[in-house]
């Protein structure tokens, strides 16, 4: 059953114990009624609001029973065009001092 399509901003605004939505694999779940039952505690669900929690969900290795239970909380899909761009890690450029120091150390070792 296809549900309503929600914007990222709309889902991110549901981020409290009284109203908690999470996004996993492009689907939106209202997990508010499950907060007290969640074996990992409500904090972990609350920490995963306002972002795509797919990686965190998969990293835990949820059982097939847990995945089946999720169907109870499904309320729609995320509008992927509203998702923020993922930021990529860019390592800092080495400073010229660091390069000179490492070269001096190398020469001393020789």
UniProtKB/TrEMBL annotation:
Coiled coil: none annotated. GO terms for molecular function: heme binding; metal ion binding. It is found in: Endoplasmic reticulum membrane; Microsome membrane. Residues 82-110 are annotated as: Disordered. The lineage of its organism: Eukaryota, Viridiplantae, Streptophyta, Embryophyta, Tracheophyta. It holds the Pfam family Cyt-b5. PANTHER family: CYTOCHROME B5 (PTHR19359), CYTOCHROME B5 ISOFORM E (PTHR19359:SF135). Keywords: Endoplasmic reticulum, Heme, Iron, Membrane, Metal-binding, Microsome, Transmembrane, Transport. Belongs to the cytochrome b5 family. Residues 3-79 form the Cytochrome b5 heme-binding domain. GO terms for cellular component: endoplasmic reticulum membrane. Residues 82-100 have a biased composition (Polar residues). It is a single-pass membrane protein. This is Cytochrome b5.
């Amino acid at each position: 059953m296809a549900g309503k399509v929600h914007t990222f901003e709309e889902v991110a605004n549901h981020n409290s114990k009284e109203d908690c939505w999470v996004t996993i694999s492009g689907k939106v779940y209202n997990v508010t009624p499950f907060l007290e039952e969640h074996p990992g505690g409500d904090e972990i669900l609350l920490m995963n609001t306002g972002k795509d929690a797919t990686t965190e969900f998969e990293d835990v290795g949820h059982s097939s029973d847990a995945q089946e239970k999720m169907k109870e909380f499904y309320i729609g899909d995320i509008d992927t065009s509203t998702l923020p761009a993922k930021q990529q890690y860019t390592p800092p450029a080495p400073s010229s001092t660091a390069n000179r120091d490492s070269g001096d150390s190398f020469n001393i070792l020789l």
